[in-house]
């Protein structure tokens, strides 16, 4: 039988999407031109919201066991700590940054996919795509010389910044490349004074230095070197890394045993629309930005979570193609814009060279870090629990001040099965037990979980999306408004 969906690319984003499609019982293939998973650390942090979403597939425990919990970030200027952002108070079962090299993230995801009976087709490259009224025709070329013209109902580009899918659409990847060179070094450090459960970010007149713990004794060092010199960034030597750490760091730190040394420049680019008919762009195929904040991989994985349940409902003919599937681009493009803007602002703070501007940055930064609401907002933004869809076209009704409101995150409860943890992409009804609630469930068995979940407040009824965001928030007795919403979603009369 021909697969209905083709996933192109088996990095963290493509693997996340494949696991979600498999969980929902969707027939798919996943192809990857690389012969093996990356062996580089690359993206280093899995944030709280991503862990909450991974929990639905039973994967968060594996990630936590393999990673390292980091609970705070320290900002140091002029030899003094001017800011301390703690993560332990974040309102999530995962109140920390989980440091986990991308190589391990991919290993965990691919292993999980294989345990579910599905394999990545490696050394298979999608070289061309074209669409017609019935679907997508993809030219697949294998390393052994085999070629294939395969038809799918849908194709999803998780194939990175140089996406074949995006190129086939001819859409603009709008943005630019910052003309500043950076170094990245995964090395071992001796004498680093910041606890290995915390980050150290140093604002120095020559530029910033960031130090991230990876495993005991092993750290990632990132630093900007100023205006680009030459057509390509240069890979630093260990001696050059040591010199930067000596000048900008706390002193007395020895750099040894490099695992990975690299130079890079920051690209800030994004497409306007993540969907073109039966083709979708996910992750770096749709957006790339500064690594400041460590949001890139997580944003892409959350793109995948968002698309998977919507596409699954359409593939299963439970919901028609239209408003629901279009909301993927509307919701995630707005998040992409926000992440891009936040990362750009953080990068601007890092690369500034004007001495007066640096002094003002340090002074204002020290003041803001001293304000508890600012620290809380920064922590919630970093961990991505602040992400929501307040302007989503699929937000349903709300009664007065019932909270959380449509588009907001529904906080997972420790010890309870997560919303969306089943094997079908169904909504959860959080309501007091009543005849009206039972009738809602029985009338929409394809869209609502059979289990009736306890309400957040006794006088409120919430309908929660399969990805853990609120769809409807009405007062008790107004269940008919949710019935109308679901009828409209599924085009029932």
Helix/strand layout:
Elements: E1 5-8, H1 12-23, E2 28-32, E3 45-46, H2 48-55, H3 60-66, E4 68-70, E5 72-77, E6 80-86, E7 97-99, H4 102-115, E8 121-122, E9 124-132, E10 135-142, E11 147-152, E12 154-157, H5 164-169, E13 174-177, E14 180-190, E15 198-204, E16 207-215, E17 218-227, H6 238-248, E18 254-264, E19 267-270, E20 275-276, E21 279-281, E22 287-288, H7 296-315, H8 323-351, H9 355-369, H10 372-383, E23 427-430, H11 435-443, E24 448-453, E25 460-464, E26 470-475, H12 479-489
Parallel strand pairs: 1-2, 1-12, 2-8, 5-15, 12-21, 23-24
Antiparallel strand pairs: 3-7, 4-7, 5-6, 9-10, 10-11, 13-19, 14-17, 14-18, 15-16, 16-17, 19-22, 20-21, 23-25, 25-26
Helix pairs in contact: 1-4, 1-7, 2-3, 7-8, 11-12
CATH class of the largest domain: Alpha Beta
| Count of DSSP-assigned helices | 12
How many individual β-strands?
26
**Biggest sheet overview:** 7 strands, mixed
Strand content bin? 25-35%
What is the CATH fold-level name of the largest domain?
Answer: FAD/NAD(P)-binding domain
Categorize the overall geometry: globular
CATH architecture of the largest domain: 3-Layer(bba) Sandwich
Structural class: alpha+beta
Which homologous superfamily in CATH is the superfamily of the largest domain?
Answer: FAD/NAD(P)-binding domain
Poorly predicted regions: none
Average predicted confidence as pLDDT: 94
Q: Helicity, in percent?
A: 25-40%
Q: What topology, given as strand order, has the largest sheet?
A: 6-5-15-16-17-14-18
Q: How many independent structural domains? A: 3
Radius of gyration: 23 Å
The end-to-end span amounts to: 33 Å
